[in-house]
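As a next step, the fold was encoded as tokens, giving this record:
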Amino acid sequence: MKKLIAVLIFTVCSFFYLPTLAEQVRQLSWDDLIPAHLLSVDLLANMTEDQQDLVIWILNTYEILPKRGPDTEELYKEVDEAIPGLKKAGIDIEKLMAKYKEIRTSVVEALNGQQVRIPGYFLPLELSDTKVTEFLLVPYTGACIHVPPPPPNHIVFSAAVLLDAYA
């Protein structure tokens, strides 16, 4: 009888202990998806407000313009006219664009394969019967229909394999 009680106590205690053995789910913010050394980069440091506005406009415009070619030269005309003024002020727009791209596309590789929790908006990509088999998680509502979209390092892709664990 004492063995039975000891086994029963051990079994009950084990059930309370098992959740502590499970992998911890880490709470993230969207900034956690950007490598730490890039978070502190201020692309607009030492610029006037007008220069900052112009640089932001150029960066966003380049992001939505189609590739440059004979048929699209007219679309680039206004941007091309703004760049010499920045160069005259000592602002290297090509260098800023490269750093901007690095910030928006660099990822924290250490997060791959980890269970994490991050707030966001669910955008289904693939449906199978009544299940979503692939989806994107994005930082703000309407992210896929607004221009510009969130940066690539702020779009989380997930597939059914991950969903089945929570179904």
User: Anything to note?
Assistant: Residues 23-34+108-164 form a domain with the OB fold (Dihydrolipoamide Acetyltransferase, E2P) fold (CATH 2.40.50.870). The chain has two domains: 23-34+108-164, 36-105. Residues 161-167 have pLDDT under 50 and may be disordered. The two ends are 41 Å apart (CA to CA).
